[in-house]
Known about the structure:
The chain is mostly helical.
Amino acid sequence: MQTAVRTEAPTAPAPAAPTAGPGRRRALAESLAPLVVDALIPLAAYYALTGGFGMSTLAALAWSSTLPAARTVWGLIAHRRLNGLAVLVLAVNVVGLALGTVTGDVRLMLAKESAGSGVVGLVVLASVPAGRPLMTAALRPWVTKGAPAGQAAWDRLAAASPRFRRAERTFSLVWGSALLAEAVARVVGVYTLPTDTMVWLGHVVLGVAVVLAMLVAGALAVDPMERMVGAEAGTPRAS
Length: 239
């Protein structure tokens, strides 16, 4: 009796799951670079100068303004455009310098703490009808996760999808409105409530505004944009 020998074709190995390689990490770092250079470094410099080096508030504001000022000038000279985040940080610092000489009036001292968030809110809101929503610099890295496919999908959607552009504008509108409302609420509180109350309540108002902005912007902009980018990144491009 002959025994039939069963042969099987060798199976191809399963494709390895994609990993976040150096290219993806580099793309994420590049997408986060404007936020770090234009906003986080000047902020860290301010706190380092006032805390670690014992500088006065005015001196620290002046020195921490040098990088955004240089970035603003460089953008105008090299690229003939304004660097939105750098201009925003510079504007906040200039307002802080202008108000830094205010002394004596406790209520005015408390009210000027709202100047920064108020200026940021106004500038962010103004950037939306200008066609360059400022909060996009913070939004894009989180939506695309720094992946090249996500970055490419963002660019295609930004060029072709009115719904995507509307969500992008909505993100800046929500944050600008929240910061401006927080500044107005704190100023009203300063002049209608006891000063001892506003010393702690002002921080609570800021925290509530930030949390609400995160929730509302997440529901109206971040979540739908992530879904659109994910779907677009997974769709093969027509050749």
